[in-house]
Amino acid sequence: MTSRGSIVLARTAESLYWLGRYMERSESMARILDVHLHEIIGSNDDNEARWSDQMSTVFSFERNVESFDKLALGLSLDETVPSSIRYSIERAYENAKSARDAISLEYWELINVAFGRVSRYTLDQFGHGLFTFYSIIKERCAQGRGLAVSTMNRDAAWHFLNLGYNVEQLDILLRLIIEKRRSKIPEDWVVVLRSIGGHEAFLRATNSPVSEIGSLNFLIQERIFPRSILATMLRISNIVNELLRGLDESQGFSLPPELPRQIARLEYPLASETGEIDLLLDDLWSSHLLMCNFYYETFFSPLSKSNFNYPLRSEVWR
Amino acid sequence: MTSPFDLYKENAGAFDEFIVNSNAQDENWLGLAKSIENLGLSELKRRAIEVEQTQSARGITFTVGGQERTFPLDPLPRIIAYDEWNKVELGLTQRIAALEAFLDDIYGSQEIVRDKVIPKRVIANATQFSRPAAFPLMEYQMRITVAGLDLIRDEKGELVVLEDNLRTPSGVSYVIENRRAMARILPELFENYEIEPVTDYPSRLLASLISQAPSQVSDPLVVVLTPGIYNSAYFEHAFLARQMGVPLVEPRDLFAKGNEIFVRTTKSSRRVDVIYRRIDDEYIDPVFFRPDSYLGVPGLVNAVRAGGVTIANAVGNGVADDKLTYAYVDEIIDYYLHQKPILKNIETYRLEDSDVLSFVVENADRLVIKPVDASGGKGIVIGSQATDQELEEVKAAIVANPRGFIAQRIVNFSTIPTVVGNNIEPRHADLRPFIVSSPDGRYVVPGGLSRVALEAGSMVVNSSQGGGSKDTWIIKGRSRQRIATSSQLQKNSQSQIAIDLAKESAQ
Amino acid sequence: MKWRLEIIHTTKYTYDDDVFSSYNEVRMTPKNTSNQLLLSSSIAVSPRASLYNYSDYFGTSVTYFDLHRRHNNLDITSLSHVELEDPRGRGVRLTPAAMIGDDFRDAFSEYLATTTYTEIPKEIAEATYDSVASLDLIEDRIAVVMDFVKANLAYRSGITKVSSSAKEALGVGFGVCQDFAHVAIALLRSIGVPARYVSGYLYPNTDPQIGESSTGESHAWVEAFVGEWIGMDPSNGVDRINKLYVTVAKGRDYNDVTPFRGIYFGGQSSPPIVTVTMTRRA
């Protein structure tokens, strides 16, 4: 491969990273909201109130709404809510467009069409039919991921996209677990497992009924469950190593010790006491934020630290 | 079986390219009509819709007022005779060669002014005359790397020049995409005709850009510079970058340092040698043009001046496609090339003469009035179609600023059969050929973008104002596989085979 | 009689916060003209930068530099030596009639056209045109313009801005040398006299001794074409400039000669501290 082929603009890398994050966010949110909306049917008011609170926190929804329905609607289709699925899809589209020359035609087509469709949906149209909306989003996003996997070269562009997907997956899972732990309702863990598509996987892997500690074990360190924190961190570690290999050694960037440290820690059995697990989760969360910062410093910084973040001024003197 | 062409009638006054050619028994046009008859209009439309859906999914769009639109492709191609095209090609290269020399001269010693071929004020008072660009280029650099001229076919059937676009002309991506689409809509015809290919364009452009890299650079880095994803021609910018295999950059990806330009990558920065830019002069370098513009790359103009980077097209080309300059192109060709112009201009009124100005004011309803420095059809008033108020406004504007406008005769330009609803009807169309220049020579895309006004009788073909497009075929001959149906055809195809064989043996 | 002047022109910018990068053009090198010989010149910049020189469309010597390290001060020093004498014109004078011909107007179109800076109300332009129409000598016509400037504009700084046009200066009735020059240029052009903007330095001491330093000033004045270019200083009511005037740049208006122009990213700058020290050396 020629040296020219390996150029990835800092902006393109950042766009790919965010494209991955927004695609993953759209899919995860659709799944999480879908599961909760289903569970609410025939459930009691306490559950609805609690879940509303939890989802508001997990997805930074800052308005007061009277029902979970309304909350879900806002988080799904309201373009003025910066954490809504619709907003995510639009940002995914913009980032895809900006990185158009780095992604495959098939992947681009899918995002282009998905965007076109979502941007035509209205709040009223899905007021009572969010399930349909979620299944469209889930299907499209899963298709997109499949297309990206099957049609893109495993070059730096792919690694940045893939990094975005995995970072977002880790981000949402950590938020969800931490928030669910806060409300301390053991029954919620079935909902959590379902929300990340892991209920059946849990039953198959553990052969035991759902318990809080069992769920935490499974979600945090189950190697064979691809969405677990450990599995996700291992993938991130591989991607980052791959990307760092492409950098000039003179720049002196290396994998921050945080990541291998956390991974090593998760190789050992978790504490049986939930209080300690909470401490671990907080620690994982700060490592995650630190890593997010590291991606900027290392790969995107020629851009984010560049001039245009500072005011442009002109001097004319007479 | 009735042909959809049976009811076809030309517009009064305009030259209809189908009627004139089919009356003259032109095999290509007749063959096209026959194929459409065989296929049936509804099948043609079905295929066209299918193709449009694919195009839309792929994002082959342009943006108007924030809305993404596909550029409607009419499924009936336009055919231009090979011999006529050869002459047009010569005319285009002649014109660009002369305008290139003109730009070099006026940004240098201005001999053409000294020799009183063009009044000084035409240049000095042109809004697009760019004093920061008044420096000589290196011998390996071109000012007009890409030109897109607008031609129309006048009432007598002659292709004449309507406008020169020498800044950042767009549309070539649609030429290539339209050809790809037509191969799916009318595969039958592609088997029968030997159509001059348009797909060479990106590699020709890349070759030109590489040949203009600052000397001493063995593996130059070429980039395409776009204002960003919200630009109306972003699709084209991304398309060209992909087709050439070079990075698509936004201004914020670039920075100047010590008269060199660098691109920010994930691995620090890389020196850029050639920038194919699709940003207007005004926004290219805030040191010189708009100090409030975040779009620009500060220091770019001086990097170019110092020879650290090449930008295509060069800064300041707008003075050569100023519509008052247009009125002097015949003189420009004569002055620099000592040749007679091959392509004609449309008769143009220069309003600085007060007699001419009063004539134009009196006859505004029978003329087209155009701002001299705008592109994309902006600000043009077609007298015969304007409201009284529009006429009064434009009259006041030209009296206040005669240098700011020119007037032209309204040309009832040619019509071409176009699918409208369930019929085929005549619609006015222009033609934008693209010319790539490099220090080694010039390449003209065979054909170009035919833009068609979709409203009956309308002469506004701009995509931003609801125009559509047509694939434009320069047909060299019938292909060998074809089974000829008439003796005339047979003769043609045989002589074509003979030529091809002669070529092959010569190689 | 010739004399030699040394000019040290320093400009100091201080920023309230770091500046990350800046891109700048300096027009501070005196020209060679028929009465002015540039003996030596240099421009120094701090923080250090590599300087790139070129001659612009108007023949002005331009120094360009960019900075990419963090800084919160920027100093520019221009040092030059020039030999000057009073301009000795050839005394060529055109009649007003000779200046309305198409060839004349075309040849000087650049210095007859209105720019943003030199726009004035149509009524004033027309009134000035009418008031000179009966005068046969071009110099009498120019005198009317100079009188008009004197009567309608008073020197006061802090009222107009660097971006003010002739129209704005006339509107408030006050201005600095830049405004005087723009108003005079606008009026000269309105009566058909080609006019251009000159930037440079004015030596404040009419009888300097060798070795004596004075605080000079950056200044702007005007040249009009009357058969040859003649310089005049509307701010000081001087009809003909002399060897106290050091020419740096000429153009259509201020925009063509801006001594310092830059784009930068970072903190806000306070107004620059500018000093011009002029010393007679011979």
What do these coordinates show?
The complex is a heterotrimer of chains A (318), B (507) and C (282). By secondary structure, chain A is mainly α. Chain A has one domain (11-304). Helices cover 68% and strands 2% of the residues of chain A. The longest helix of chain B is centred in the first third of the chain and has 25 residues, at 82-106. In chain B, strands 3, 7, 19, 20, 23 and 24 form a six-stranded mixed beta sheet that branches. Chain B folds into two domains: 17-346 and 411-506, no CATH class; 347-410, Dna Ligase, domain 1 (2-Layer Sandwich), CATH 3.30.1490.270. Chain C is an alpha+beta fold. Chain C is 20% helix and 39% strand. Chain C contains six helices and 13 strands. The longest helix of chain C is centred in the middle third of the chain and has 15 residues, at 138-152. The radius of gyration of chain C is 20 Å and the shape is globular. Chains A and B meet through helix 1, helix 4, helix 5, helix 13 and strand 1 of A and helix 3, helix 10 and strand 9 of B.
Total domain count of chain B: 2
User: How much β-strand is present in the residues of chain B?
Assistant: 15-25%
Sheet/helix structural class of chain B:
alpha+beta
Oligomer: heterotrimer
Percentage of residues in DSSP E strands of chain A: under 5%
Provide the helix percentage of chain B: 25-40%
> Outline of chain A, from the CA principal axes?
globular
| Overall pLDDT of chain B | 89
Continuous helix count of chain B: 16
Query: What would the average pLDDT of chain A be, to the nearest integer?
Result: 86
What is the number of E strands of chain A? Answer: 1
> Got a strand count of chain B?
24
The number of distinct structural domains of chain A comes to 1
From the alpha carbons, calculate the radius of gyration of chain B and give it in angstroms: 23 Å
Question: How are the elements arranged and paired?
Answer:
The complex is a heterotrimer of chains A (318), B (507) and C (282).
Chain A: H1 10-40, H2 45-58, H3 68-77, H4 85-98, H5 105-118, H6 130-151, H7 156-183, H8 188-195, H9 199-206, H10 212-221, H11 229-245, H12 258-267, H13 274-304, E1 312-317
Helix pairs in contact in A: 1-3, 1-4, 1-6, 1-7, 1-8, 1-13, 2-7, 4-5, 5-6, 7-11, 7-13, 11-12
Chain B: H1 17-23, H2 27-39, H3 41-58, E1 61-64, E2 67-70, E3 73-81, H4 82-106, H5 111-114, H6 120-124, E4 146-148, E5 150-153, E6 159-163, H7 172-185, H8 187-192, E7 193-195, H9 201-211, E8 222-225, H10 234-244, E9 248-249, E10 254-257, E11 260-264, E12 269-272, E13 274-277, H11 300-305, E14 310-312, H12 323-326, H13 329-337, E15 348-350, H14 354-362, E16 367-371, E17 381-382, H15 388-400, E18 405-409, E19 415-420, E20 423-432, E21 434-438, E22 441-444, E23 449-453, E24 467-478, H16 487-506
Chain C: E1 3-26, E2 36-46, E3 52-55, E4 61-67, E5 71-84, H1 102-107, H2 122-132, H3 138-152, E6 154-155, H4 166-172, E7 174-175, H5 177-190, E8 195-202, E9 213-225, E10 229-232, E11 245-251, H6 254-257, E12 260-266, E13 273-280
Parallel strand pairs in C: 6-7
Antiparallel strand pairs in C: 1-4, 1-5, 1-12, 1-13, 2-5, 3-4, 8-9, 8-11, 9-10, 9-13
